[in-house]
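# nightly structure sweep
# worker-07 picked up a monomer target from the shared queue
# config: single-sequence mode, recycle default, output format = structure tokens
# input follows
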Amino acid sequence: MRLGVQKGIRVTFTNKYSEEVIKAILEEYHSGADRAKLCRKYKITPRTLFRWQEKAGENRPKLLRLSSKLHEENARLKRLLEEKIIENEKLISLLREKSVMIKK
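# output follows
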């Protein structure tokens, strides 16, 4: 049964794992343990594991790396699109010139 607010009394939840145990679980996860198996073993949800990583500051560098990779990929795709647009404009102008030459 999940505890919450009952009859105007606020009930707070306590963490059943100490900071040392949480660090040990995170180390085990980073050493290559499967997330699902680890969560079953310690009876925690994947969201709890993620939240612990966030509190430990472990997810920020991954997100920053991902963000920079996405920015680089976006810039590369914009350059490609720009090149293709210029190429298409040149082809259209060539086709117009040829069609004018054929009509004469």
